[in-house]
Amino acid sequence: MRFRPSVLLVVALILFAASCSDDDTSILDGGKHWLVQFHRLTLASDTPDRLEVEIEVLTGANLAQHAPDGTAVIVSTTVGAFETGGGRAEIQTVGGYALALLELPADRPASGTITARVGEVETAMEILVDEAGSMQLGAR
Fold first, then answer.
1. CB atoms within 10 A of CB 50
2. DSSP per residue over 14-61, as a string?
3. What is the CA radius of gyration of the chain?
4. Which residues pair with 128 in a beta bridge?
5. Which residue in 3, 117, 121, 138 could disulfide with 31, CB within 3.0 to 4.6 Å?
6. Integer angstrom CA distances of residue 105 from 21, 78, 88, 99
7. Could you read off the pLDDT of 100-136 as tens digits, one per residue?
8. Which tens digit of pLDDT belongs to each residue from 63-104?
9. Is 80 exceeded by the pLDDT of residue 21?
């Protein structure tokens, strides 16, 4: 039987690939293991000028686990102000979700963008609230 270097190379590559695993979630680096998405945007029924923004944060090798409690989510907006009084706020996750309360301007129509960021991963949503108080998402 003759030794073939190409067979040895293929076997080495297969062993190397098998030893690599993306299941380790103990270190979440560079945004590689985060998924940030808007779960719910609702105009508050008790205060029509307040928008409740619920953000879901997933993690893990398959992005199937909710982020640990206390994960920092940075939210920013170009319309209105968060309950902190500014256009930027840091909120924490509980059960993989974070809730931000956004006070919309009284002048209508009001339009702008809401952005949510965890690490280097972010998502953005365009919103429009018309004169009657109806909300449209993804509108410009």
1. 16
2. HHHHHH--S---S---TTTTEEEEEEEEEE-SS-TTEEEEEEEEEETT
3. 22
4. 111, 136
5. 121
6. 49, 11, 15, 19
7. 999 988 888 888 999 999 999 999 999 988 887 778 8
8. 889 999 999 999 999 999 998 889 999 999 999 999 999 998
9. no
Residue 42, CA distances (Å) to 45, 47, 59, 132, 139 in order: 9, 11, 25, 15, 15
pTM recorded for the entire structure: 0.74
* DSSP structural state of residue 73: E
pLDDT value at position 62? 85
Residues 33-59 pLDDT 10s: 899 999 999 887 777 788 899 999 999
CA pair distance 6, 11, nearest whole angstrom = 9
- How many Å apart are CA 99 and CA 40, to the nearest integer? 9
- Give CA angle at 91 (88, 94), nearest 5°: 160
**Is 136 in a helix, a strand, or coil?**
strand
Distances (CA, A) of 47 to 42, 58, 87, 117: 11, 30, 19, 26
Nearest Cα to Cα of residue 56 among 103, 99, 114, 102: 99
Residues 6+ apart with CB under 8 A from 31: 118, 119, 120, 121
